[in-house]
Amino acid sequence: MKVRVRLHESAKRSWQRWICSLAANDGDRQRFVELYFGEIKRLMSEHDGVPPGAIRTRVGNPKQYVWEFQQNFIWIRYWRKTIDGPLRRLLIEEFLDPRTS
């Protein structure tokens, strides 16, 4: 199953705030972006867009989920839409940081 993961415009502010909370300089932030976004994409691809622990909050197409990417670290709200049979499009809507919520 092919899965595409994208950040929605509405997620960019919460993504930036979360990444900035992890590192003090741009070089470290860039490494976190590559590491974490790569891992998010990998896990979502391996599990057809519904990684272990994801909770569906809306039925239909697209479905909405929330997922605790790492325990007590970050929650992700996203939409999963089926397009043309084997393709899944995942649109990340928001990153929720329990340390600051």
Instruction: Indicate the CATH topology.
Output: YaeB-like fold
Assigned CATH architecture: 2-Layer Sandwich
Rg (CA only): 14 Å
The figure for the number of domains is 1
* Low-confidence runs: none
Structural class: alpha+beta
Largest sheet: 5 strands, mixed
Name the strands of the widest sheet in spatial order. 1-5-4-3-2
Integer average pLDDT: 86
CATH class label: Alpha Beta
Number of alpha- plus pi-helical segments:
2
Explained architecture:
The radius of gyration is 14 Å and the shape is globular. It has two helices and five strands, in the order βααββββ. The longest helix has 21 residues, at 26-46. It has a single domain (2-96), classed as YaeB-like fold. Strands 1-5-4-3-2 form a five-stranded mixed beta sheet. The protein has helices spanning 12-22, 26-46, and strands at 2-7, 55-58, 63-70, 74-83, 87-96. With 101 residues, it is α+β, with helices and mostly antiparallel strands. Helix content is 32%, strand content 38%.
